[in-house]
Design brief:
By secondary structure, the chain is mainly β. The chain is built from 1 helix and 14 strands. The protein is globular.
Length: 200
């Protein structure tokens, strides 16, 4: 399903390698590469306390603007197609928020407009171990630690894999990665077992 752009909807399962581009503090920029090592997405450094993120393609074209709703007890973020301008009456295409204020919780993502859908993100992003499910509870994407195949060594948390199921918009998935990084601050607040629904 196309949410951001059709060119990022793949017919087969696709793996993106995501790397933090600076390690000074959580949320300091990302780059995502395909299996051929080609840059697909990038997010330039935006600092530790921001209310707006911009996801770009490999050419620097703005695909998605993510803005934090303020104030928001549930760490709510909204996504807008392309570049968001304050003086335009632009509507968000989705929102993402913590499902609960108490303890560790999943993240609920709602699509707006013609393509209404509700996704849930469960697992532990801080450990790069989580899943994106649709309303039918089918897995649409998975985030996990990357293993160096030549040495069979698991890499650090600043390099991880995003696995996209066929038909799931990769730009949308990458936007959700940015939101998770901001909501969790790299500490892994989301910690539900996807099989039981209970906290680990």
């Amino acid at each position: 399903m196309v949410i951001v752009e059709e060119r990022f909807v793949y017919a087969t399962e696709t793996h993106l390698t995501v790397m933090k581009t600076s390690l000074f503090y959580p949320g300091d920029g990302f780059a995502a590469y395909d299996s051929n090592g080609q840059l697909v997405f990038r997010v330039d450094s935006y600092g530790p306390y921001t209310r707006e993120l911009v996801l770009m393609d490999q050419y620097g074209v703005c695909l998605l603007t993510l803005r934090r709703k303020w104030p928001s007890l549930h760490s709510r973020w909204e996504g807008y197609l392309g570049e968001r301008r304050d003086n335009e009456n632009q509507k968000a295409i989705f929102s993402a928020r913590r499902s609960s204020l108490i303890g560790r919780s999943s993240v609920t993502v709602e699509l707006f407009g013609d393509q209404t859908e509700v996704y849930r993100i469960e697992g532990q992003f801080g450990h790069r171990n989580c899943w994106i499910y649709d309303s039918a509870k089918e897995t649409k994407a998975e985030i996990r630690r990357k293993v160096d195949v030549s040495t069979n060594v698991m890499l650090g948390k600043d390099v991880f894999l995003v696995t996209l199921k066929p038909g799931f918009d990769g730009a949308f998935a990458m936007g959700l990665v940015l939101v998770l990084d901001q909501i969790n601050g790299g500490d892994g607040v989301v910690d539900l077992d996807p099989n039981t629904g209970f906290y680990r």
